[in-house]
Amino acid sequence: MTGLSIFLIGVLSLGAIYAILCLALNLEAGIDGLWDLGLVSFFGVGAYTYTLLTCEPAGAGQHYLLGLGLPMWLGVLAAGAMGALIACLIGLPSLRLRKEYFLITTLAFAQVLQQIYANELWLTNGVAGIYGLPQPLKDYVSPSFHTYAIFTMLLIAVAVAYFLVQRLTLSPFGRRLKALRENENLAMTAGINPFSYHLCSYAAAGFLSGIAGSFYVWYNTLVVPGQFSANITFFVWTAVIIGGLGNNRGALLGGFLFMLINDLLRFLQVSSEMALVLTSLKTSLIGMILILILRLKPTGLCGERKEIIDL
Amino acid sequence: MLEVRDLKKYFSGIKAVDNVCIDVRKNEIVGLIGPNGAGKTTLFNAVTGFTPTTGGKVAFEGFDITALKAHEVARKGIIRTFQTPWGFPRMTLLENMLVFLKGTDAGFWSALMRSKKVNTITADTKDKIIRVLETLALDKKRHDWVQDLSAGELKLMEIARALMAEPKIFLMDEPAAGINPAMQGTLIQLIRDLRMEGGTFLVVDHNLKFICDICDRIYVMSDGRLLCEGPPDRVVCDKSVIECYIGNN
Fold first, then answer.
1. ipTM exceeds 0.90, yes or no
2. Which pLDDT belongs to residue A1?
3. What mean pLDDT is reported for chain B?
4. Which of A269, A265, A245 is nearest to A255 (CA)?
5. Which residue, among A25, A98, A72, A2, has the nearest Cα to A300 in the 3D structure?
6. Chain A / chain B CB contacts < 8 angstroms
7. pLDDT computed for residue B8 by the predictor
8. b/e for A36-63, b at 16 or more Cβ within 10 A?
9. Cβ within 8 Å, pair B111-A187
């Protein structure tokens, strides 16, 4: 296994984690029309929940809660459940607000949570974070194939997430979410309670993002508060817009494509000075690609499609 | 069936609806007319929970629905259409209709655990949808996005959508506006047929001929107040109604 293939698999693994986040965002924003700028809240909560439940108790010089050493699959499910719970708690006050106010409130909640990770030493070991976390299958797969094994598991998770989100989207439930996105007042005349439908989609997005958070711990083998800045939310939004808001395939494509654009710049054969410049210009470059795609294909690479229902 | 008692809706001193009382009995077609700004649409909004009332009471089938929210009013069986037709623009006409389909299991868990039933449209429902689409000449547009429909087609779609909900009472806000005369005849026939099947209607429109053709009784509003009430032939001859529509000269 060459270094290049390991690197590529690493990028695609991160792409898979982003793809799950993109699917979550597409469900709540693309289908339901909730402009959420706090997606990273659930991602971070999922990562910390997974870590605190599956890692060993804190050693000397470390402080964090629990450390129960539970099985990883239990940690993944708990991460999803905690993501959904936090979504419900944030959603209860904020989903009653209008679009712009909802957007600001969710961003504020995400910032508050990041401050909690950084400052509540007893809970998360503060800015030092928690290191050396185990990866799954380490004992069962040879080290040379371990990266592939993790990638395969992430691909399976992406497939399951896609299947579930697609199922929700194409159901009468999904149709009602779209109706709310398009015209909330009119949807109410069909007897649709906006709050309860928004809460369901928001909690489902929280669940998926929480699970993605636990996978992020697999990938990095550490959690530090700096990983859960608002940048993640904006990156996921960028990825979904590139792929096509309102289309689950577009969201998948956007997730992988974003990661490839983000990391493949490293392959450019340039001088060390130029590499430094490119690194600092990476975000601008992604912004330019986003503008270009919006100019040439305003609905994204795979825009929303008509749902043809046969009678 | 629908009782509106002393309904008031004030906007910072402007009396948009002032002490209005209206009764709609089961299986009746009642008209509500009046010049622009008379308060007809505000009355509709207050009855359907779109705007909180300043005072008075709205009861439906004996239940007080004054304080209910719009979606709760709709669940009671009151379906309304809008003066300016509304749709879900990036959904097809058929999807728009299915959102309103009565008896749909649209729960989160049902969608996730999807039993076959959840996405299946029964044969009866299919027949009904096809019949409505054909009657309203919308059959060829069923897979078009609503944002691509003309204003007249949007008006017809509103009616098609309302029919999917099988309401106990239809509140129609200017259903004939923007619809060509031939289709207006079809619409009148459709409303009459629905009444034969037990439907109840409260219809707002500016088209007096249309209102007189279909309604059993008509209420006339002006400046937020009720001017008169009665059968069409009596109302159109009423001096105050003529004055309010064409002036006293």
1. no
2. 59
3. 88
4. A245
5. A25
6. 109
7. 93
8. bbbbbbbbbbbbbbbbbbbbeebeeebe
9. no
